[in-house]
Design goal:
Strand content of chain A: 15-25%
Strand order of the largest sheet of chain B: 1-3-2
Shape of chain B: globular
Oligomer: heterodimer
Distance between the termini of chain B: 29 Å
Number of domains of chain B: 1
Number of helices of chain B: 4
Largest sheet of chain B: 3 strands, antiparallel
Shape of chain A: elongated
Number of strands of chain A: 22
Number of strands of chain B: 3
Number of domains of chain A: 4
């Protein structure tokens, strides 16, 4: 009962505070009136009676305050009052407040944005049921040469029948389809996934409309069926439910739409438009091979089975497969990663590095604000001392300081949150290649994090100056501040320490950014081995049904390159199944009949490309030996190949490769190809060394997809429309995709690096500015404090040059200390960057020296102005100011 | 009349509770009553009565109600709650123990 009473009391005190206040006044007044009445009755005059009553009663205002203190919620009232005071004090120095708030906003905004990205992309579970049991399976090498190889169809079949650690296991592959329109819609090349029927049930995904795949759909002889993504359904079919059960054309073959996936399902990313059944799409012989590594495997662990146990079991199965097939590229181990980790592997390190950089930026921002507050509290020492002398408690003064800095950090945080939403908006549109980019949102947890940051920053920036203001020596302070000698050494030293830390962090950021920048430049300056400027490329995909013979395919490709070559402004045109810079895409093992057989288990491997005869000339890939492919080498007569320099060096050391033969294991037949020429190396990936490559004749007629490269005299993008018209002239229904210049392809393949570099560089520059502002502020403050002293020195005959030197050294000392701290810390931190660096040593001396140089120059510039001002002090003026 | 003794720390609560155990009173009357009963020995510093009253009210030991005073003016009357009565017993017992103990020490010495 008593707690109920207490609660009602508390509520009354909270919500009827004004009324209770009035009542208290009334109560006290009643008491006084009674006393006065009694005194008058005792014969005093009205005036005397009043005074006597007050004497007996005490100070009514103080008593009212004491009484109010017994009420609950009094702390709330005091807090509110302190906030009002704090806001008013800050408003009186708007320059300081705005700088501090902006600094905080930048620091907090960057952190909230990165926290949102890290949380949404790296930490938040995938939106599937029991995600902690979802894993990705890879083939691996027991010697640890590689861990994350894609899986062969036969391997998957063996795992699925033999492994006991999994509830279910599904196989999938990215693919694209030529989606052509029924009602005059434009054809388009649609990103798609083909997966075994059980993938969606395994993930726990139910279609929004229609039905899931069934095992009966997932067979070579089943009727062709397709599921549409929500996005494609809305965009292309206007969200019409009637589409379910109808046919659409994929690669010119009819597929029946069986279902629409829900809007939230954007796995693996939002670009995927279609899903088909894998065992219907892929030939059965391919799904039995152990050597053709093509597929991703997703599985669900049985409850209670750990990843280690499952890996052990899977590796044992895989080792058994290897014993069965000791020849060819068959792996002997397996690797398992949690599904989320597997999805974000490519961006993880970069994101964490950028996140660490924002952390540094925030620390710098806090140090800067703390620094400003120390200066401010030094300027207010006199006020503080007077208040202490009048009985203001230390706790009370510290609380006011803290509240001031909390106001700054909360205002900064609110603006920072706004910054963060802008940054995120930009980020999501600029980096749609980040896995799960569509899941990036500011949510409740991030808001809590923001609140935490704001509190932490407020306390951090507020406590340092608050603790440093020593009001024990009130008298000394009053003395000092009444005659401006160079006092306050303590707070100057504190500011210098803060500055040194700030400079140290800045140096770390600068070195990190410098290393990434150098690595990025290295990457971009890598020679791809072929023409890259003024080259336009596009992907062409001939539909299986209409181009069912080698003759049709070859005649299309031949006409295409002939006509494109005749366009004005075109210097060359060539076709290849894979262009440089587009990645590996396909490699096959082969044997060299002229060489003795290899020991069991060893294979020769090379990248496989099919090119038309004019390709090398068009892409300016130099012929080093022998001859190029000839146009008359086609179909059964196409038995010549050209190899890359690295292949000749690797597999024909010290002998002439020309005239030797290559027998690729392409599946059936295995014809023997004669090497007729050697060409220069091209890179598949900018960050990788050249890989040995075999160029087969495109005119053998087996390939349906190719990339067209057109080298032009002028702006390559201007040729895009004429080329597309040529293609439409050959086949009106043929879509082209990825119309990109070679420079854009290079840009795409380095987007991660360029992004990390730019972001880190931006943070580093920002922190450099903050550090410079800090240095400038501290030295200006020291100069202002020591004006009298400097005046005396000059009056006594000190040279202006000496004064300049003295002051410069004063300012540079913390900068140099910070530099040393920063360089030492960077030696540790750059190790963490190592995996992101390309062709750059983590202790790259040029970067370290350049950063030190830049920092010293900036520090000297920041100090020069106040130091120069100090040397210009007029002694008379300085002495008279006091 | 000699200088009134300062109240022993913490005994004000006991005095207030005891005074209110008979009937509801307003602040001024409580001060007067304590003074009278103690024969002017105990003089409550009138102001300090109010923080104590409000504290007891927040604790739920006494409750307040506005009513007309003898002079016809509205005044705040305090009275004991059930919890306050228990508290009074506890504090009285406590006080008796304490004062007896002090008595023994003072007489022995």
């Amino acid at each position: 009962m008593r707690w109920l009473h207490k609660l009602s009391m508390q509520l009354r005190m909270l919500f009827f505070r004004g009324k209770e206040d009035a009542r208290l006044n009334d109560e006290l007044r009643f008491h006084l009136e009674q006393q006065i009445a009694e005194n008058i009755a005792a014969g005093m005059s009205a005036e005397d009676a009043r005074h006597a009553a007050l004497r007996l009663f005490g100070n009514p205002t103080a008593l009212r305050d004491q009484t109010r203190e017994t009420w609950n919620w009094n702390w709330l009232e005091q807090l509110w009052r302190d906030i009002r005071y704090g806001a008013r004090t800050l408003a009186r120095t708007p320059g300081f407040s705005i700088i501090a708030i902006v600094v905080m906003a930048l620091g907090i905004g960057a952190n909230v944005a990165l926290m949102t990205v890290v949380r949404s992309v790296l930490l938040k579970p995938l939106p599937f049921k029991d995600t902690d049991r979802l894993v990705r399976l890879y083939e691996a090498d027991s010697h640890g040469a590689f861990q994350d190889n894609v899986v062969a169809g036969g391997t998957f079949a063996a795992w699925k029948t033999q492994a006991r650690s999994f509830d279910d296991m599904a196989i999938t592959q990215r693919i694209d389809y030529n989606l052509s329109g029924a009602g005059g819609q434009l054809p388009e090349l649609a990103d798609a996934y083909t997966a075994s029927w059980n993938l969606l049930p395994l993930l726990g995904v139910q279609p929004a409309v229609g039905r899931n795949f069934m095992s009966s759909d997932d067979r070579p002889n089943a009727a062709a069926v397709v599921m549409l993504s929500w996005g494609l359904w809305k965009r292309r079919y206007g969200g019409d439910r009637g589409i379910v059960g109808k046919s659409i054309l994929l690669d010119a073959r009819p597929y029946t739409v069986i279902g629409i996936l829900p809007a939230w399902f954007t796995y693996p990313d939002a670009k995927v438009q279609l899903w088909t059944a894998l065992y219907h799409e892929k030939p059965p012989w391919l799904m039995q091979l152990y050597v053709a590594h093509n597929f991703d495997v997703v599985a669900r662990l049985k409850p209670g089975v750990s990843i280690q146990q499952a890996t052990a079991e899977l590796s044992a199965i895989q080792a058994q497969i290897r014993r069965q097939f000791p020849d060819g590229p068959v792996n002997d181990a397996a690797n398992i990663r949690p599904m989320l980790e597997a999805e974000v592997l490519s961006v993880k390190t970069g994101l964490y590095v950028v996140f660490a950089a924002t952390g540094c930026l925030l620390l710098i921002a806090c140090l800067n604000v703390a620094n400003l507050l120390v200066a401010r509290s030094a300027a207010r020492r006199r006020e503080t001392a007077i208040r202490s002398a009048l009985g203001g408690s230390r706790a009370r003064l510290i609380r006011e300081r803290l509240i001031e800095s909390l106001i700054l950090s909360f205002a900064g945080g609110a603006i920072g949150l706004f910054f963060a939403s802008l940054i995120l908006h930009w980020l999501v549109s600029a980096r749609d290649d980040i896995p799960r980019a569509d899941a990036i949102h500011i949510d409740g947890v991030v808001l809590l994090f923001t609140l935490g940051i704001m509190l932490a920053c407020g306390f951090f920036a507020g406590l340092i100056p608050a603790m440093s203001s020593n009001d024990r020596q009130i008298l000394k302070t009053l003395h000092e501040s009444s005659r401006s000698f160079s006092g306050g050494r303590g707070s100057t030293r504190l500011r210098q320490l803060l500055l040194a830390l700030e400079v140290g962090l800045t140096v770390m950021l600068l070195i990190g950014a410098g290393l990434l920048l150098k690595s990025y430049r290295q990457l971009r300056s890598v020679d791809l081995g072929c023409a890259t400027s003024h080259v336009l490329t596009m992907d062409i995909n001939l539909p299986k049904v209409e181009y069912d013979t080698a003759a049709k395919r070859v005649s299309f490709f031949e006409q295409l390159q002939e006509r494109v070559r005749q366009l004005p402004g075109v210097l060359g045109a060539g076709l290849s199944t894979v262009l440089p810079g587009k990645g590996r895409m396909r490699d096959d093992v082969f044997t060299i009949p002229e060489h003795p057989p290899l020991p069991r288990g060893q294979v020769l491997d090379a990248s496989t490309r099919f090119v038309d005869p004019g390709y090398f000339q068009a892409m300016q890939i130099p012929l080093l030996q022998g001859r190029l492919l000839r146009p008359d080498e086609r179909y059964a007569r196409a038995l010549s190949v050209v190899v890359s320099e690295s292949l000749a060096r690797e597999y024909f050391p010290g002998e002439n490769p020309i005239g030797k033969h290559i027998v690729p294991e392409l599946g059936e037949g295995n014809p023997s190809y004669a090497i007729v020429g050697v060409v220069g190396d091209t890179l598949e990936d900018l960050s990788m060394p050249a890989f040995q490559t075999i160029y087969y004749p495109l005119y053998v007629g087996t390939e349906r997809s190719a990339m067209l490269a057109v080298r032009t005299a002028n702006d390559p993008t201007a040729i895009a429309i004429p080329v597309q018209k040529v293609i439409a002239g050959l086949d009106r229904n043929l879509p082209v995709a990825n119309v990109l210049t070679m420079d854009q392809i290079i840009g795409q393949s380095t987007v991660n690096e360029s992004f990390d570099t730019k972001l880190l560089l931006a943070f580093a520059v920002l922190s450099l500015v903050l550090a410079a502002v800090g240095l400038f502020g501290v030295l200006s403050y020291i100069v202002a404090q020591r004006t009298t002293e400097i005046g005396v020195r000059i009056a006594l005959g000190a040279q202006r040059k000496q004064v300049l030197k003295l002051m410069l050294l004063d300012g540079l000392r913390p900068a140099i200390a910070g530099l040393v701290i920063g360089v030492a810390a960077s030696v540790g931190a750059s190790r963490l960057l190592e995996s992101l660096l390309f062709g750059t040593h983590p202790f790259d001396p040029i970067v370290f020296i350049a950063v030190c140089g830049i920092l010293l120059v900036i520090a000297a510039l920041a100090c020069a102005m106040p130091a120069w001002k100090a040397s210009r002090v007029d002694p008379m003026q300085a002495l008279r100011t006091e | 009349m000699g200088k009134p003794s300062d109240l022993v720390q913490g005994t004000l609560d006991l005095l207030i509770l005891k005074t209110l155990s008979l009937e509801a009173k307003h602040g001024w009357a409580i001060a007067k009553r304590i003074q009278q009963v103690s024969g002017d020995v105990l003089q409550v510093q009138q102001g300090s009565l109010y923080p104590a009253l409000h504290r007891l009210e927040q604790q739920g030991w006494i409750k307040a109600r506005w009513a007309e005073s003898e002079t016809g003016r509205q005044a705040k009357f305090y009275s004991l709650t059930a919890a306050g009565r228990k508290q009074l017993e506890a504090e009285t017992a406590n006080w008796n123990r304490l004062s007896e103990a002090i008595n023994i020490v003072v007489q022995e010495a």
